[in-house]
Structure formats: C-alpha cells, structure tokens
Amino acid sequence: MEDAVILDGVCKTFRGFRLENVSFSIKKGYITGFIGPNGSGKTTTIKLIMNLLHPDAGTIRRFGQNDLRNNRTVMNRIGFVYAEPPFYDDLTVEQVKTVVAAFYSKWDETAYRRYRDAFEVPGDRKIKALSTGMKMKFSIALALSHHADLILMDEPTSGLDPVIRREILELLSEVIQDEEKAIFFSTHITTDLERIADYLIFIHRGRIVYSGEKDRLLEAYRVVKGPREILTPGVKRILIGLRETGVGFEGLAPTDSVPALGKQVLAEPPSLDDIMLYTVKGEPHA
Q1: Which of 3, 24, 53, 282 yields a CA-CA distance of 20 to 30 A from 40?
Q2: What is the Cα–Cα distance from 129 to 131, expressed in whole angstroms?
Q3: Residue 264: is it exposed, middle or buried by C-beta count within 10 angstroms (0-12/13-18/19+)?
C-alpha cells in the first residue's frame, strides 16, 4: 500500500536549532503518533509536510509526489487540525464553514452536517462563544468533510476533558477503518496514543529516536527497580535515565538486558511516558 507521506533525510536549520536527517513514513490505513518534548522539532516537521516551510536538504513525497507544482491538488488531499483553530471569532460556525468549503474541490456538505450534528456543534453560534472542546470538534468536522486522504493533527486533544477526548479518539478509530486514509497525530498526551496509535515517531533534539510499530517500542524496554547496592558500573551501563532514591533506583532498560540485572530487580512494562521521560532526561551511564 502506498505511503501517504515519506520524508527522506530532511534537514532544516534555524538559529539555535537544527532538524537533522529526519526520515520516516506515514502509512495509509493507520494512525501514526508523533511524540517528543517541547522544542524537539514536531511543529517544524508538520510545517514541512504542509509545505509551509521548505527543507534545506532531503525530500518529502506526498502521495508519491515531491514536485509541488500541483500543490493545490496535493493540499486538497490533506486535512489539518490545529491545536488552536485559527477561526475568526466574530463569524458563526456556518460562516466559517462556507469560507473553508470554498477551498476544497471535494467538499461534502452531507458529511459535514453529519459530523457537525454528531458533535452537537451549533451552526448559528459565533466562534468566540464556543468552548475549547467545541472548537476542536468543529475543526475536526471540517478536516473530515472534504474526503482528505491524510489528516494531520497538532495537539488535537490538548486541554480537552476526558469525555470529549474519548469521543474524538473513537471517531478517529472509525475514520481509519476504510484503510485508505492516514492520520498523523502529534501530541504530548501519550495515553491517547497508547489507546489508538499503530505506529510511533519519537523525535528529540531534531533527530528521530524511534520510528516503527508502537507495540514493538513498548516491548523493547522495561522499567526496572532495585536496591542501590547492586548499582555496579556494569548495571549502570545497561540503564537509561537512571534515577536514584534513598532506598533504591529506577530506570529504563532494554528488555533483553533485564536478566543481566539479577533477581533483585523488579521489571515492569513501561508506558510511552516512561520511555520518553527516561530517554529525554537521562543518558546511558558509563
């Protein structure tokens, strides 16, 4: 199956920051999560995919094309959901919809009304009168109403209450069922990705730390805990992001290295938060 987007060796330099040799793909029929700490390069990468920035080196292929002379055709196939939807506050929901719909050749009014009604977004209400959650649901309804093949989402569940977050996640899981669409989901709420993501891209300091199946990443590591007296140089070399306490230690270890730590160590499955925290905050010990 054709990948929706392929980045190959993409670099972009700003003052004090460099996106370096970024390579990954966004697969059709799947939800790909994009994680990393603030300042790691997530927003820059999304802007590059959206053609709002241009790479200094490397290539970006969208639906098999890296020549964007037909940029309008390519962008017609992409729906984008911002963390803070850029709508005019004094326009009503229906007025904003009319403006947005004019940009898309495949706008589907029936689909839009179905999503709007399902989300209970009032068409006659001004944008400034909508709650944060309602604005996000409206933004998602717009993104899904022109039959986009790729949905790019930048922090779509940030600041939302658990009920609305669950509604959105369930909708995204339904959207992906036709196996023709791809969803790229950038978020710092890793529990959302644990629930729905198939693949993960982990970026840190402008470099890709991991790109692959979510379950494979979770299976590759264990959170380990043990008494301080076993913290020999050999044990420290195995651990990532060691944290010592008054009674013991905790860290991240490759799953296949856990037996080498001995029977006094307790090993538990990690969360995505654990993996990101220990990778970002800690370095392998010498």
Answers
A1: 3
A2: 7
A3: exposed
Radius of gyration of the chain (CA): 21
Taking a C-beta distance cutoff of 8 angstroms, is the pair 200, 249 a contact? no
Dihedral of alpha carbons 248, 250, 253, 256, sign: positive
Q: Per-residue pLDDT tens for 131-175?
A: 888 888 899 899 989 989 999 998 887 777 788 888 888 888 888
Fold held by 3-217: Rossmann fold (3.40.50)
Query: How far are the Cα atoms of 156, 241, 256 from residue 249, in angstroms, in the given order?
Result: 36, 10, 19
What's the pLDDT tens digit per position in 205-220? 999 999 999 999 999 9
Q: What angle do CA 101, 151, 70 make, to 5 degrees?
A: 65
- Provide the token pair at 71: 């940029």
Question: pTM of the full predicted structure?
Answer: 0.88
